[in-house]
Amino acid sequence: MSCERCRSAEARRAAPPTLPTEQTHHDPCHARGVSDLIELRDRIRVFTEERDWAKFHDPKSLILALVGEVGELSELFQWLPADTAATRAHEDPLHTRAGEELADVLIYLIRLADILNIDLVDAASRKLTSSSTRFPTTQFHGQAPEKI
Questions:
Q1: What is the pTM of this model?
Q2: String of b and e for 64-102 (b: at least 16 CB within 10 Å)?
Q3: How confident is the model at residue 25 (pLDDT cuts 50, 70, 90)?
């Protein structure tokens, strides 16, 4: 028997594509599963151990590194007009550079979660459930919540 998340993903894959890009391109956001995150975490551990860098991987240092990488990603888009940023991000060299910076962000995020012993998939799933309750579609469809 499969879990709800797997059944949901299977249903999405079985549904006909709704956007032209879905018909012609592999979905880059589709992970093969939690095992991908575990494999990546294990590769990051080996990479760190081989270089004796674990002593530098305290939570504060990893958070600062993560913020730095997010800054490098944001720098790529900083002065792009909002209405053309997504289109331009599909073209090189921006597409390649964005992928590199996103990879850095993901690596530091996975390493930080590993150090803090946080299951990212479980934490994200719980957060989405909580956000669904906080922001019901009947009240927030098509509008952003106001900051108070």
A1: 0.75
A2: ebbeebbeebeebeeeeeeeeeeeeeeeeeeeeebeebe
A3: very low
